[in-house]
Amino acid sequence: MSQLSYARYGKDNIRLYKVDKDEKTGIHTVIEQTVCILLEGDIETSYTKADNSVVVATDTQKQTCYILAKQNPINPPEQFAAVIGTHFVETYPHIHATHVKIIQHRWTRMEIDGKPHPHSFFRDGEEIRVVESVTREGEGISLRSKIEKLLVLKSTGSAFHGFHRDEYTQLPETWDRILSTEVEAGWRWKSFKTVAEVKEVDFNAAWQAARDITLKTFATDSSASVQATMYKMSDQILAAVPLVDAVDYALPNKHYFEIDLKWHKGLKNTGKDATVFAPQSNPNGLIQCTVTRKGAKARL
Ligand SMILES: O=c1[nH]c(=O)c2[nH]c(=O)[nH]c2[nH]1
Hints:
- By secondary structure, this protein is an alpha+beta fold.
- The chain folds into two domains: 1-138, Urate Oxidase; 148-300, Urate Oxidase (Roll).
- It is 24% helix and 37% strand.
- A hairpin with a 2-residue loop joins β4 and β5.
- The chain is globular.
- The mean pLDDT is 97.
- The structure holds uric acid (URC).
């Protein structure tokens, strides 16, 4: 009658914290992550025949995550994802693929009296660093890194004019508008054969470069549109990180509407006189793109 056509299982929302304590200087470095592990393989009978002998319990997966975190660096998260993924594929002959997602939360070192504090940190926003990995038996490790939930706004330096007009168009052209978005930026790495190969890569430098390029381009570009600005960002990340094959952005356009206040004693609050705006929750524009190197296959 029926057949199992998709099966993955594992542990989600494994919360993990690791501290590195430098004995000489007394400086602590902390990392907090949320890990998801999903396994694939010859596990059909656990669904179709109640055969638990093929099940590496999700609790075992969680315990393994803690042990691997004790035995290995968990920063950069790309490297830890590869370590976890490879462990399951190499340890269990019937497990053929591991999908690992790691969300790294921000703990930024406090500055007290102008000096970096050795062991105190604060959460400076909701921005997260994300890694998605797939380790497949015989096929190596594929990695995608992401920045998510980085909220930015510029109060000028953005225009939107010259767009298609017809009988459905009401939006006026603008040469000066507010631009705000919550950045979701991803970069896909060339595939790696082994964990040793992954360990050679400076993922933290790439994350820093992608973040710096995103912020600098957002701030300094005379934006003709979200589309044009995000393409410039993608292009620069591809140039800065040679091991990256593809860069993608998904940028919501978080609108700020002008409010006409001339009904009140002729108050001027539109065009160049606009200072009070109404931030909109929804609907919002949503602009997406993937940019690859010339000659690479497009995946639109
Ligand atoms: O940068 C923009 N891109 C669009 O496609 C668009 N559409 C729209 O209404 N406003 C904007 N802004």
